[in-house]
Design goal:
With 248 residues, this protein is mainly beta. Helix content is 9%, strand content 74%. The chain contains one helix and ten strands. It has an eight-stranded antiparallel β-barrel. It has a two-stranded antiparallel sheet with strand order 1-10. This is Outer membrane beta-barrel protein.
Length: 248
């Protein structure tokens, strides 16, 4: 009987001490949650890049002089010179709020070829080959963090070679470096710190120019050639200076 009473007393004492022991435990200290950091893409800085794609040049020929005898522009017809382009670009951008401004120079090797049979001088075939394109433009864009839409405009230059052939034999030829204007637009996406990829479309207004054709060193005709170029490229740029900044 004494053993039973002793066990009961022990259980009662333990049950009385348990709430006090729980109350004596220290409360967990409050820890403030860390401040969230938002990454903001900054488009400012110098950049270098490469580009590649395709282009089509519309060329319309009008003969206005044959062996030194001048005459009115007489249509010979038009053709599209099409092919690929690949090259690079270098530029600088600066950003103010969401607005982005920039200057850029671009140079591309090209392989645009096309031909048509002359309406006025058949069976002569007029051939165009554009082997180089350059752009010198200013840019204005609007950025949504790492997405940038921009428009551009400025000067353009092409280098072209022209041939007149018959039955596969080149009879006369001319070449020129031509300056004109350019407008374009692009959408660029920053996919990693310093790196971005873009798609771009440009239209080149190259106007009309007289070109003197020679055969065996003798001028045999002058053609007034109107030229325009449409070009679409994919571009990859690397911007120097760390374009991602933290915003608290």
């Amino acid at each position: 009987m004494k053993k039973v009473l002793l066990a009961s007393a022990s259980l009662f004492a333990l049950s009385a001490l348990a709430p006090a022991s729980a109350a004596d435990l220290a409360a967990r200290p409050y820890t403030k949650a860390p401040i969230a950091v938002a990454s903001i893409y900054n488009w400012s800085g110098f950049y270098l890049g490469i580009n590649g794609g395709g282009a089509s040049s519309r060329n319309c020929w009008d003969v206005n002089n044959i062996f030194g005898i001048a005459g009115p522009d007489t249509a010979e017809g038009c053709h599209n010179a099409t092919g690929g382009v690949v090259g690079g670009q270098v530029g600088y951008r600066w950003q103010s709020a969401n607005w982005v401004f920039g200057l850029e120079a671009q140079g591309d090797w090209a392989n645009l070829k096309g031909s048509n049979t002359s309406v006025a001088l058949a069976p002569l075939v007029n051939e165009t080959k554009i082997d180089a394109i350059g752009l010198f433009t200013g840019q204005v864009g609007y950025a949504w963090n790492n997405v940038l839409w921009y428009v551009k405009g400025g000067a353009a230059v092409t280098h072209a070679k022209y041939n007149g052939s018959a039955f596969g034999v080149v009879l006369d030829s001319a070449s020129e470096t031509r300056w004109g204007g350019a407008v374009g637009t692009g959408l660029e996406f920053g996919f990693a710190p310093n790196w971005s990829v873009a798609i771009e479309y440009d239209h080149l207004f190259m106007g009309k120019r007289n070109n003197s054709f020679t055969i065996l060193g003798i001028n045999d005709r002058i053609d007034r050639i109107k030229q325009d170029v449409d070009m679409g490229t994919v571009r990859v740029n690397y911007t120097f200076g760390g374009p991602v900044v933290a915003k608290y």
